[in-house]
UniProtKB/TrEMBL annotation:
Protein name: NAD(P)/FAD-dependent oxidoreductase
Alphabetized UniProt keyword annotations: Flavoprotein, Oxidoreductase
Domain FAD/NAD(P)-binding: 3-283
Record lineage: Bacteria, Bacillati, Bacillota, Bacilli, Bacillales
UniProt keyword Oxidoreductase present: yes
Record keyword Calcium present: no
Subunit structure of this chain's protein: Homodimer.
PANTHER family: THIOREDOXIN REDUCTASE 1-RELATED-RELATED
Organism: Robertmurraya kyonggiensis
Length: 298
């Protein structure tokens, strides 16, 4: 139960760090709750070497397999508490405690998504959440933005870089500021302030939506923008790590260490750009400096 490093979060950043630390031959435990953002993305399209896209599931499975071959251990559990004593004591949901000399928090962010089960197989395939990642996928194509208030309006306006055939549905009927409404009108974005009754999809192919009034809107691509995404920095907050107002963890830009000694953070929980490729780099960089710190003690 004693480890050189305990990584909390087995997504992209956590796995890349685990691989790097495994190659240093450190004793590493990755504890993952199995509900991270990368578990729901069916395809990432902006990663080097995957021009046709790669799923979060594939990256997670391949990453875990690679790390396990290096001796890294994995545990499917939710961490409830971290305490700092001579080492760090990590308590999981079933009450078991694990001790680590170093902690890496890679718990990520989870998007707030509407409760339409038909939507989930489409994520990353025909419905997207990140314009930087997937704006290119809707180039010159009719697209529906499913969103809420100003957040959805801003997303629709951002997407005009790629397409001028846009519909924005304010599903939650939240207020949209007058200046944003004016800009939606100027960009000829069709605006509906009405709840969505159902999402139309065939497997991972988005087809459109039916509004509460029965009106059917068709498009083969969609974006989701509801705001208030969950930033999973509660464990860092327990330890007293410094956070930004938006709850992302502040780290040293070079080492990725938090304001708490021997506690690192990597991935979407840190980087507000929230990119898979940046999460990979974050994980590797944190692991390098975790290794350096362990070597200093020896």
């Amino acid at each position: 139960m004693n480890y050189d490093c305990i990584i909390i979060g087995g997504g992209i950043a956590g796995l890349q760090a685990a691989i790097q630390l495994g190659r240093y031959m450190h004793k590493v435990l990755v504890i993952d709750a199995g509900d991270g953002r990368s578990t729901i993305c069916q395809s990432y399209h902006n990663i080097l070497g995957y021009p046709d896209g790669v799923s979060g599931e594939h990256l997670r499975t391949a990453g875990q397999s690679q790390a396990e071959k290096l001796g890294v251990q994995f545990l499917l559990e939710k961490v409830e508490k971290i305490e700092q004593a001579e080492t760090f004591v990590v308590t999981v949901h079933n009450g078991t405690r694990y001790h680590g000399k170093r902690i890496l928090i890679a718990t990520g962010v989870m998007d707030r998504l509407p409760e339409f089960p038909e939507l989930f197989p489409c994520l990353g395939q025909s419905v997207y959440v990140c314009p930087d990642c997937d704006g290119y996928e809707i180039k010159d194509k009719p697209t529906i933005v499913l969103g809420s208030g100003n957040v959805g309006a801003s997303m629709a306006l951002t997407l005009t870089y790629w397409t001028d055939n846009l519909i924005y549905i304010n599903h939650e009927l939240q207020k949209v500021d007058a200046d944003l409404l004016q800009r939606l009108n100027e960009k000829q974005i069709t605006y509906y302030e009405m709840p969505i009754q159902s999402v139309l999809a065939e497997g991972h192919h988005f087809q459109g939506v039916i509004l509460e009034n029965g009106e059917k809107l068709e498009a083969r691509h969609g974006f989701v923008a509801f705001g208030s995404n969950e930033v999973k920095s509660q464990l860092a907050n327990q330890l007293g790590a410094e956070l930004l107002e938006n709850k992302h963890i502040i780290v040293d830009p070079r080492t990725k260490m938090t304001s708490v000694k021997n506690v690192w953070a990597a991935g979407d929980i840190v980087a507000h750009s929230e990119q898979v490729t940046i999460a990979m780099g974050d994980g590797a960089q944190a692991a390098i400096w975790i290794h350096k710190s362990l070597m200093e003690n020896e």
